[in-house]
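Quick illustration for those who missed Monday's session on complexes.
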Amino acid sequence: MRSVIWFRNDLRVLDNPALHNACLTSNQVIGVFIITEEQWREHDDAKCKVSFILRAVESLRKSLEKINIPLVVIDAGNFKNSETELLLFCKKNEITNLYFNCEYQINELKRDRKIFENFKKENIGVFHYHDQVIHTPGSLKTKAGGDFSVYSPFKRKWFEELTGDQLKILEVPKRQAELNIDSINITDYQTKYSSSIDDLWPVSEEHAKQMVESFLKTRGDAYKDDRNFPSIDGCSKISPYLNIGVISSKWCLVKAREHNNNQLEEGSKGIVHWVSEILWREFYRHIMYNFPRVSMNKAFQAYTEKLEWSENQEHFDRWVNARTGIPIVDAGIEEMKQTGWMHNRLRMIVAMFLSKNLLIDWRKGEKFFMQHLIDGDLASNNGGWQWSASTGTDAAPYFRIMNPETQSLKFDTQGEYIKKWLPQLKDCPISEIHMPSNPEQYGYVKPIVDLKQSRQAAIDAFGSLKKN
Ligand SMILES: Cc1cc2nc3c(=O)[nH]c(=O)nc-3n(C[C@H](O)[C@H](O)[C@H](O)COP(=O)(O)OP(=O)(O)OC[C@H]3O[C@@H](n4cnc5c(N)ncnc54)[C@H](O)[C@@H]3O)c2cc1C
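Prediction with flavin-adenine dinucleotide bound:
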C-alpha cells in the first residue's frame, strides 16, 4: 500500500504520530511538503522564520533518506491550491492513504475539513493525529462542562487526565524498500529567504535534542529564577524548533521527567517550572481551537473591542524603530530585530509598553512580532499579546501595568542587557542607564511619554469600559 505523509509543523522523524502510523500501515510511504508563499506572506511569517522552515525541510529530507522515504516538495502557492496539487500528486502516484498531524488555526482547520471530504470522494483515506499537544484540544473540560479560559485549573486538569501512554515516544520508523520519486529542488527558495540571522539558529533534530538535553542538565534546576534575567542564559531557546516541530513537546516533557527523578509536578523547582511553561504553550493551542475568534483578529474579552486605541503613528514608529527613549524597551526590540528572538520578560515589557503606555492596539504589536520572530507562532504570540494588553484569557488585570523602568532596575540591574543591544549607552553610568537624564549626549533620545501619566491614561481608558 502507498501512503503520503504531509509534513507541516512537524518537521521531524522522531515521535511523529502521522509518520509513525503511515509506516505501520503502508509499505511505501512518501513524504510531502507544500510551499505556500502566499500564506506565509498573509500570516506575516518573518523572513528568518521561512528560512528556518526551509532549512528544516532540507534536514528532514536527509533524515528521511536514511529510512528510504523520499520527501517531495510541491510549490502550491497558497492553501487553496494545496488541496488540488496534493490530490493530483496522490492520483498520479496511486496513493491510497493520506496522513497528517493537525494544525489548529481556523483556516487550516477549514482546509483540512475540505480535504477530508474531497479525498474521500476519490477513495483516498485521510488519517489525522495530534502531535502539538498531549491532550487533544476540546477534550479537557471544566466541572461545568465548558472549555478552560484560565491557565491554573487547565493545568490541574491536564495533570489529572494524563495517562502513561500519552507520554510514550514514537520511535523513528524502520527503513522501507527504496522508492524513487522526483521532487523540486528548494535551493532557489532558500536563497530567496536566507537571512543574516540563519547562522544563529542551526537546524536539525539532533541539534534541537542537544539543546534541550544541555539546558536540562546545566540550567534546568536554576531556571525558575534565572529565566527572569535577560542577560543570563537561563532559558532553553527551544521555541523556534518546537513551533515548526523539529522537536516534539512530548519529547521535551519526557526528557524533563528523566532529569527530574521521573517526576513532572514535583522535585527540581526549575524543571517543574519549565514543564509548566510548555503547558502554557499547550494552553494557548487549546484556546485557539476552542475560541476560534482569537485567530480572527478578535479580542478574547469582547468588551475590550470598544476601547479607543491611539492612532499616534509617530509613537508606533518610534516603538518599531527602538527609539522610544525607554532603554529596556528599545533594547528588547533590537534583540528581536538582530536575532529573531526576544527574551520572555522583554516580550511582556515591550508589549505592555505599546498596549498600555502608548495605548496602541495590541494587534499592531502582534503583527510586528510575527514579522520579526523566528519562533512566531499564532497561538502563543496572540496569547502573549492579549495577556499583556489585558484583552485575553487569564490576562493581566488592566490596572496592573509593568513599569518598564522598575522592571529594568529589577531584572537588568547592571544594565548589561541594555548595553548589549543599545551600544550607544555603553558609557552611560549604571545609576542612569535605566532612564538617562541627558540621553542626547549618547546619541539616544528622550522618552516619548511620561510613564506615570501614560499609565494613568491607560487605567482610565480601560476603567471606563463596561464589561457587558
Ligand atoms: C507578547 C508575547 C509574545 C509572544 N510570542 C511568542 C511567539 O510568537 N512564539 C512563541 O513560541 N512564544 C511566544 N511567547 C511566549 C514566550 O515568550 C516564548 O515562548 C519564550 O520566550 C521562548 O523562549 P524559550 O524557548 O527559551 O522558552 P523557555 O523559557 O525555555 O520555555 C520553554 C518553552 O515553553 C513555551 N513557553 C514559555 N513561555 C511561554 C508563554 N508565555 N506562552 C506560551 N508558551 C510558552 C515555549 O514553547 C518555550 O519554548 C510570547 C510571549 C509574549 C508575552
